[in-house]
Amino acid sequence: MNIIIFIISFVAAFIFALGGVGAAIILIPIFVSLGIPINMAKPIGLFYNTVSLSGASISNIKHKRLDFKIGIPIIISSFIFAAAGAYISKFIPANIILILFIGFLLFSGFMFLFHKGRSEDAYRKDRPYFYLLLIGAFAGLLSGMLGIGGGGIISPLMLMMGFHPKKITAITAFVVPFSSFSGFITYWAMGDVNWIILIIASIGGVLGATLGTMVMHKNLNHNHVKKILAVILLVMAIKLIFKVI
User: Does residue 85 have a pLDDT over 80?
Assistant: First the structure.
């Protein structure tokens, strides 16, 4: 089982790093399918996001791909609300969390699948701080409740607002470790952490995400990446629907 968890973690981190999204969004439903309780899977997913995307962020900062003035407002609000979401989830039944997770997977999947790209000149260059704070708060709340890190919410919402996909990728990779760590600390304080699975998954995540980030910036077609991510998310949503019913 430990070898399976490592391989799944590595592959998931590699694929989702191509889109700048934390792989916990797909790792948690896979863990649930393997029989790991969702309340145990969520803190693993959050810590996994923290360590796997930290390496991607360092790479983006080193190569000057990151717009800090857009990322900082999202970090502040998501960090605060992720802790709140993790605490609130304590009072929500596991089946309700699974239903929310299915809705989240469907939303993210369809956004990645049907959102149309723009010409280079059509992407927005401004920094609407109030809306960025709202995106961070919403993503943080869901991040803590579902154990997902929030990248799957931040990316679609920023696409809707008209930001460039590559800029979004760098920003989500920068924001997700902060919101994920905030949620993880809250779950840890509530005593819901399996350290063995967490360490194995995190090692696979660091290796996979680092490799995925390197590949992503080598003239990779971002539209193809979005479609691949969409298909994966929708397939997992369908699988969880059958689990719930």
Answer: yes
